C-alpha cells in the first residue's frame, strides 16, 4: 500500500525548484500530514525537493521509520527557465504528452520515471505501507499511467497538501482512494476523483 502525498503549500520562487521550502501554512499542514500517517507508515520515501521532504519527514520521525530519498520522485521539470504563462505551458503538456518546453521534460518522460520509482518501492517493501512525498504533476502522471481518467482536471483539482492511497495486489494497482480532506474543505473524500461513482464511493477500482 502506498500513500502518495502532494506537498504542502510552498511560496513560488523562480529558479528555486529544489530549494524552496514550505510557507507558514505549509508547515502547519505538514504537521497534520504527520498526524494523518504516522500510525500507519512503515517506510517514508520522498522527492529530494525541499518542499516535498519537509511535508513528510515528520512522518518518518514520528513513526521511527526510514526516510528514503529518491531523485525519480521529483517534480516534472517544466522548462529550463522561468515560464511566464504557466497555465498555458502546463495545459500544452497535458494535451501533448511527448512534447516538452526548452530545457524541460515531457509528461511521458516524467511519467516513466515516476512509475519506475513506485514500482521499486512496491517491490522493495512488500506488505508494507509506504508514504511517498512527491508533487502534484508527478503524482497525477503516475495515476494517469494506472488509469487515463486521471488527467489535467484531476491535477487541477488537487489540494496542497493532498493524500491518495493506492492499494497494490501482486505489484499491480487495484484501487486509488483519497484519504485527505483539508480542514477548510467541507466536501466528502473522493469528490475530486474523476472516477468517483465508477468503483466505490471513495475512489476507483480497476
Automatic annotation (TrEMBL):
Region annotated Disordered sits at 182-206
> Which residues constitute the signal peptide according to the record?
none
Q: Give one GO molecular function term.
A: phosphatase activity
What InterPro entries does the entry give?
A: His_Pase_superF_clade-1, His_PPase_superfam, PGM_Phosphatase
Instruction: Report any Pfam family annotated for this entry.
Output: His_Phos_1
Record SUPFAM superfamilies = Phosphoglycerate mutase-like
Q: Where is the composition biased (Basic and acidic residues)?
A: 183-194
GO cellular component, as recorded? cytoplasm
Name of protein:
Phosphoglycerate mutase
Amino acid at each position: 500500500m502506498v500513500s502518495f502525498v502532494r506537498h504542502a503549500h510552498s511560496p513560488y520562487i523562480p529558479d528555486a525548484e529544489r530549494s524552496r521550502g514550505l510557507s507558514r501554512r505549509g508547515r502547519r499542514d505538514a504537521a497534520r500530514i504527520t498526524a494523518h500517517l504516522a500510525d500507519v507508515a512503515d517506510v517514508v520515501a520522498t522527492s529530494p525537493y525541499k518542499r516535498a521532504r519537509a511535508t513528510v519527514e515528520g512522518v518518518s520521525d514520528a513513526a521511527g521509520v526510514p526516510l528514503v530519498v529518491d531523485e525519480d520522485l521529483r517534480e516534472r521539470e517544466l522548462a529550463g527557465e522561468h515560464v511566464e504563462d504557466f497555465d498555458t505551458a502546463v495545459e500544452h503538456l497535458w494535451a501533448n504528452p511527448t512534447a516538452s518546453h526548452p530545457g524541460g521534460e515531457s509528461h511521458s518522460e516524467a511519467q516513466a520515471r515516476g512509475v519506475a520509482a513506485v514500482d521499486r518501492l512496491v517491490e522493495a517493501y512488500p506488505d508494507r505501507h509506504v508514504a511517498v512525498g512527491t508533487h502534484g504533476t508527478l503524482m497525477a502522471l503516475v495515476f494517469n499511467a494506472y488509469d487515463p481518467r486521471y488527467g489535467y482536471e484531476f491535477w487541477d483539482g488537487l489540494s496542497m497538501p493532498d493524500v491518495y492511497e493506492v492499494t497494490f495486489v501482486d505489484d499491480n494497482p487495484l484501487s486509488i482512494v483519497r484519504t485527505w480532506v483539508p480542514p477548510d474543505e467541507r466536501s466528502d473524500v473522493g469528490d475530486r476523483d474523476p472516477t468517483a461513482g465508477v468503483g466505490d464511493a471513495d475512489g476507483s477500482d480497476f
